[in-house]
Amino acid sequence: MAKTRAHVFISGRVQGVFFRSTTRSKAKNLSITGWVKNLKDGRVEAVFEGEDDKVKEMLDFCHEGSSAAQVSDVEINWEEYQGEFSGFEIRYEW
């Protein structure tokens, strides 16, 4: 199975609604590696690495988000798979 990497920016009401923790749980269930974090401008940024179909499933999730989220846009940048992550984490730096 081919592997891929997606660098995404999610806009809308995505902070303070458990978006990051829900994303982390979903990623772990799908064996996706990478990270997710809040941005100062109110968006959420994430990097997902894994099997093509699993990454696409994560991107589908990003369009919905957590139950309290209201996603207005998902910007997806496809990148070369690097295999640099050992798990999936929430990052807290700006």
TrEMBL record:
Key words of the record: Hydrolase
EC nos: 3.6.1.7
InterPro entries: Acylphosphatase, Acylphosphatase-like_dom, Acylphosphatase-like_dom_sf, Acylphosphatase_CS
Coiled-coil region: none
Catalytic residues, chain numbering: R20, N38
Any one Gene Ontology molecular-function term assigned to this protein's record: acylphosphatase activity
Catalytic activity from the UniProt record: an acyl phosphate + H2O = a carboxylate + phosphate + H(+)
EC class: hydrolase
Residues of the Acylphosphatase-like domain: 5-92
Annotated signal peptide: none
Any one Pfam family match given in the protein's UniProt record, by short name: Acylphosphatase
PROSITE patterns: ACYLPHOSPHATASE_1 (PS00150), ACYLPHOSPHATASE_2 (PS00151), ACYLPHOSPHATASE_3 (PS51160)
PANTHER family linked to this entry: ACYLPHOSPHATASE
Similarity annotation: Belongs to the acylphosphatase family.
Protein name: Acylphosphatase
Organism for this UniProt entry: candidate division MSBL1 archaeon SCGC-AAA261D19
